[in-house]
Amino acid sequence: MYGLRLRRTASVLGAGLATLLLTASLAGCSGGGGASASGSASPGASATASAPDTAPASAGRPNIVFVLTDDLSSNLVPYMPHVQQLEKDGTSFSDYFVTDSLCCPSRSSILTGDYPHNTGVFTNNGDDGGYQAFNKNGDEKKCYAPALRKAGYRTGFMGKYLNGYQPGDDNGTGKPYVPPGWDEWDAAGNGYPEFNYNLNENGKVVHYGHDPEDYLTDVVSKKAGSFIDSAASDHKPFMLELATFAPHAPSTPAPRDAGTFPDLKAPRTPAYDTLSSPAPKWQSGLAPLSTEDQASIDKKFAKRARSVQAVDDMIASVRSHLAAKGLADNTYFVFSSDNGFHMGEHRLRPGKQTAYDTDIRVPLVVAGPDVPAGRTVSQLAENIDLSPTFQDLAGAGAPSDADGRSLAPLLHGQQVSDWRQAVLVEHHHPASKKNDPDAAPDDSGNPPTYEAVRTADSLWVEYADGEREYYDVATDPNELHNRAGTVSAARRDSLHALLSAMQHCSGAASCAKASVPAP
After folding, report:
1. 304 to 69, 78, 299: CA distances (angstroms)
2. Measuring CA to CA, how many Å separate 428 from each of 73, 97, 425?
3. Which tens digits make up the pLDDT trace of 95-114?
4. Is the pLDDT confidence value at 15 over 70?
5. Confidence class for position 279, pLDDT limits 50, 70, 90
6. Residue 143 annotated among the catalytic residues of the structure
7. What is the mean pLDDT of the chain?
8. 223 phi and psi, to 5 degrees?
9. How far apart are CA 338 and CA 271, in angstroms?
10. Residue 382 pairs with which residues in a beta bridge?
11. Three-state secondary structure call for residue 86
């Protein structure tokens, strides 16, 4: 049952044990969940014993629920049993990447379907980043919400929007501003602490305090249930994005989860405390991780695992709500993250912003109508594909002027012969660290400006200072052997040409063509 609260013991639940417990607890169940006083799923509640209380809404037009987490890396999924269940129920993408391992550029690409060179959003603030750059460049009009609303969908957004956004911003309207295309708008500004924040609730600023029921992820979960109730009553298809601040630092857990995973340690992969060889100059001065560094990393990893428990509960609660309303079979449920996160890999203290897989490769899981269960798609996908996919699934058609492509054929098990062969990553070194929650000390990953291409078997990075990195990820999955200095001239020229073409593409046809290396 989706609503079952799987209590975590004081000891660490490894991935295998967590999966075993989940399978034993959830076998044969398809829905459930009552509401607690704070609106989250109550332990053990189930909807499987009773019929849906509302007839399915617009059965021919699917609903879409999109859960977008903040800084969630794949190594947290073993501590999220309901995400693991979603993987069993649906299809996962093994090679899904983001256009930049940084919040605002990535979220801008998700909303619009465009690369940073077409959104103009490369950082979290300043002239080339943040909410102001997004608005200045007209990106709001390119978001998927207006298109879906025009197609007859009820649209809802709850949680984290874009860096620099404040709930009281009026954008010249004289009242708290709601971006175009959203029927329900419940967006926070500084929601990172999960308490003591403001929400713009459909044009009204509402303050939440420090009580347990004010915990932001739970508030979003409760509002999601109300949104689904309303849409179901009106028999109207809907698109709902639930954008959490978790597990972004300070990784505040829900009070009920504060004592979980007391002994949890960060994974020690082959890349942990190991520089690539040869390392780029921006990493070459990194000292080995001290005992104190490693203890700090372990402490932060455990906090991240605690903070996503409420996200996992929200997923269970929303899926239960859909089942109770008779909407589960006609709803695409999507789970992902805006970027990954390294914790000791490449000798880097906790952070992101690099072109390594720890930072750019994140989960993408989809369950829904005609989506095969337990399947993995290996084709290269990117966050620019989400907006076209949502529009395509809703029947509005994937927009030709977006850089991404619809994933719908891949989701439905179809073969696509002309799929992309590379994804593009674009990163600008931020001009300022002021008011940036992702401002990074040099030892946590603060590389120079770079452009990179990731193919199925390689990573090629070109830094603005002239340095290069090349990794054969087929034989070196931890990206430890930098072969930029020994790769053949032909291979180097081919990768540079591929990168250059992708840097200048615009629109689906152009970017699809650019993503295929010249023969």
Report:
1. 12, 12, 9
2. 21, 17, 10
3. 999 999 999 999 999 999 99
4. no
5. very high
6. no
7. 90
8. -65, -35
9. 22
10. 97
11. helix
Is the Cβ–Cβ distance between 66 and 241 less than 8 Å?
A: yes
Strand-pair partners of 462: 451, 468
d(CA 120, CA 116): 5
Between CA 155 and CA 169 the distance in angstroms is 21
For the four alpha carbons of 385, 387, 388 and 390, in that order, the dihedral sign comes to positive
For residue 236, pLDDT over 80 is answered with yes
Q: Of 374, 221, 396, 381, whose CA–CA distance to 310 is shortest? A: 221
Contacts of 323 (CB under 8 A, 6+ apart): 2, 30, 31, 32, 47, 48, 52
**pLDDT at position 274 over 90:** yes
Whether 136 contacts 165, CB under 8 Å: no
Q: Determine the Cα–Cα distance for residues 11 and 13; give it in Å rounded to an integer.
A: 6
Q: Choose between 66 and 54: higher pLDDT.
A: 66
d(CA 330, CA 368): 7
Separation of alpha carbons 411 and 90, rounded Å: 9
What whole-number distance in Å separates Cα of residue 66 and Cα of residue 2? 16
Q: Is the pLDDT of residue 120 over 80?
A: yes
DSSP run (H or E) holding 469: strand 468-472
pLDDT at 20 over 90: no
Closest CA to 273 of 288, 292, 291: 288
Distance CA(317)–CA(337), nearest Å, equals 19
Q: Give the active site residue among 29, 103, 104, 511.
A: 103
pLDDT band, residue 327 (cuts 50/70/90): very high
pLDDT digits (tens, 9 = 90+) for 459-512: 999 999 999 999 999 999 999 999 999 999 999 999 999 999 999 999 999 999
Q: Does the N-terminal peptide bond of residue 278 adopt cis geometry, omega within 30 degrees of 0?
A: yes
